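Batch job 17 of 40 flagged for manual review because the log was empty.
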Amino acid sequence: MRKSIIAVLLTLSTFAAGAVELYKWVDKDGVHYSDQPAPGAEKIEVHGVPNVGATPVPPPAAPAAPAAGTFAGYEQFAVTEPPDNGIIRDNSGAGEVSVTVSLTPALREDLGHTVRVTLAGQTQGGAATQFSFTGIDRGTHTISAAVIDGAGSTLQTTTATFTLQRTSILQKKPSPTPAPGPAPSPSPAPKPSTP
């Protein structure tokens, strides 16, 4: 029965306005409707059926823009310098390491966001994305970086590991080679002694 009603409704929706001929008959399987005559079918005239076309489906709505003052987060936050698992050579002896972080979108200073970077027990922070550390010993180190909001809460974190190679102070420097000088003069021959 339910299928029959659905079939009638679908059939009705496809006809143009005006008189439409439908046929109805009952058999052992139930009530049937059709636009084609069948043996024993009763003719039904339907007047003024509107032509109902498909209703266009609107495209999905774009995600609502965040309200003013709200922030959806950073899509990307990473230590880009030194590269993760990279090697830095510092022959100055000062153990200098420059750290750069990148954020997408850019750091939201208007919301009070800052970056905090920790390396070898030293912590630096502020509304910057580049930091310079000195006195870092040779070896493998892990950089920890965090974005901090105006209330002091951590929004996002990231890490990177690198190895610092430094010239050792124990490493002997080659001795300078003396410049060649004048050739030594021959010694005078000993004089024979007289008795």
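Reviewer: the log was empty due to a logging misconfiguration, but the result itself is present. Helices lie at 2-14. Unflagging and moving on to job 18.
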